[in-house]
Specification:
single chain, 282 residues, alpha/beta, Nucleotidyltransferase, domain 5, 2 domains, 5-stranded mixed sheet, 10 helices, 12 strands, 45% helix, binds adenosine-5'-triphosphate
């Protein structure tokens, strides 16, 4: 079983930077991860040792089913987050990596890269989301499942290498739609209601059929592989108890790091730092 203590410590540090950014250490380069999602756009800034420096995010409706549908809106939000970080830190941000759902490189990889570059960032790498998440988690054998807003992406790892990578369009947006129907709420109200931890015990049984759909997607992705553990990340994995429901249906060990919504954005920024190190060592 993977040990997530180190990843959890880094996530705690990252979350503490949202309200209190760290002053960048003199002479240390900064690396960014920009995650353009169906529900949130997140910008993570790390120093060259992978230490969290700043993190900003905004709820946004510029991506649908993993595809950018409002390019100008995405650029505006990304620029706003970058400018906020730059004014907090008093430095100009440079290198950045981005991520896209698995199997969408030919459709959307260039668009996401262009969003980053439109706000003056130099995009040095495009990762698929669950593979980026694993740069933080370090799962050697198992499946990393990124349950986002619009889609669920799964990377299966054997000896630390990706052997399968898939994406299906079911995510937290579908949970909110089910909740809206069940409680007679608007989608926006259901989205907010669902996110409040005090509502999770009530929400879990209502969205159980949609959790089971996600579980079937995980099952299909893993069926041809020996998968000793499944790790849930992504904002939808923030729902308390989702891991228990998935585990009981899947019959596999299921784990969840703390703050699963920030695993992929932090992994993307770690990937940016990693690529820079590879270029320096080449
Ligand atoms: P995608 O990867 O599908 O493009 P995304 O990157 O926006 O989407 P995430 O930011 O990982 O995805 O997750 C967004 C989803 O997580 C939304 O549906 C949101 O409602 C859900 N979410 C966020 N926080 C919570 C919470 N505390 N409880 C339940 N769901 C949550």
């Amino acid at each position: 079983m993977s040990d997530f203590d180190a990843a959890n410590r880094r996530l705690e540090e990252l979350l503490s930077c949202v309200d209190e950014p760290r002053a960048p250490r003199a002479g240390k380069r900064l690396y960014c991860g920009l995650d353009l999602g169906t529900a949130f756009i997140v910008l993570v800034v790390l120093d060259e040792d992978g230490g969290p420096v700043d993190c900003k995010y905004q709820f946004a409706g510029v991506v649908r089913d993993g595809m950018v549908v409002d390019y100008v809106g995405a650029c505006d939000i990304a620029r706003g987050l970058k400018e906020q970080v730059e004014s907090e830190l008093g430095v100009e941000l440079g290198e950045c990596a981005v991520a896209i759902p698995p199997q969408t490189e030919s459709l959307d990889g260039g668009v996401v890269r262009n969003v980053a570059e439109s706000c003056g960032l130099e995009c040095t790498a495009v990762f698929d989301e669950p593979t980026a998440a694993n740069l933080l988690l370090g799962v050697q054998n198992g499946a990393v499942v990124d349950i986002g807003g619009g889609t669920t992406g799964i990377s299966v790892f054997r000896d630390g290498e990706v052997v399968r990578c898939v994406d299906e369009s079911t995510g937290g947006t579908h949970f909110s739609l089910v909740l809206a129907g069940a409680k007679g709420m608007s989608f926006d109200d259901a989205e907010l209601y669902k996110r409040a931890p005090e509502h999770h015990a009530e929400v879990l049984p209502i969205v159980a059929p949609t959790i089971d759909k996600v579980t079937t997607i995980i099952q299909r992705a893993c069926e041809d592989y020996d998968v000793p553990e499944v790790v849930l990340v992504g904002g939808t994995a923030e729902l308390s108890g989702i891991e228990g429901r998935v585990a009981s249906r899947l019959g596999m060990e299921v784990h969840k790091p703390s703050h699963p919504m920030f695993v992929t954005p932090m992994g993307i920024a770690l990937g940016c730092a990693l690529k820079a190190r590879e270029r320096r060592d080449a």
